[in-house]
Amino acid sequence: MDAHASAPAQEHSHPTAGVYAKVGLILFVLTALEVGLYEITYGGHAGPSAGAIKPFFVPLLLLLSAAKFALVAMFYMHLKQDHKLFTGVFVFPLIIATVIIVSMMLLMAYHFAFARAG
């Protein structure tokens, strides 16, 4: 019998501490961007450009939050190393929920815009 035949099934390599530190740094930067976005839009540092940013405030926060969520799910929840089936079982309902939430937001925006016009 070959010595390699008794080896366990192929193991996935887990990220090193350096990778986790880099991901943590990226999460810190994304959080700082979220706080900075609030400060320049509604906070004490809001300037004349705040009015131009306000329509994009919520979508930008949602985008930054989604990026942070993806990083946490991939690295700290180990979805990046798991079988693709587990990733699909986790991601597919999130996609459905995102489509429903965005659709409801658009529907409500249309409803309120139409209610004001009429």
Summarize this structure briefly.
With 118 residues, the chain is mainly alpha-helical. It has helices at 17-41, 50-53, 57-76, 84-117. It has two domains: 16-81; 82-118.
Layout of strands and helices, then pairs:
Blueprint: H1 17-41, H2 50-53, H3 57-76, H4 84-117
Verbal overview:
By secondary structure, the chain is mainly α. The chain has two domains: 66 residues; 37 residues. It is built from four helices and no strands. α1 runs antiparallel to α3. The chain is flat, with a radius of gyration of 21 Å. The model has no long low-confidence stretch (mean pLDDT 84).
| Low-confidence region ranges | none
Could you give the order of the helices and strands?
HHHH
CA-CA gap between termini: 82 Å
Helix count, DSSP H or I runs of 4 or more residues: 4
Shape: flat
Task: Please state the CA-atom Rg, rounded to the nearest Å.
Answer: 21 Å
Q: How many individual β-strands?
A: 0
- Main β-sheet description: none
What is the averaged pLDDT score? Answer: 84
How many structural domains does the protein architecture include?
2
What fraction of the residues are assigned to beta strands by DSSP?
A: under 5%
Percent helix? over 70%
Structural class: mainly alpha
Oligomer: single chain
Question: Which keywords apply here?
Answer:
118 residues; mainly alpha; 2 domains; 0% strand; flat
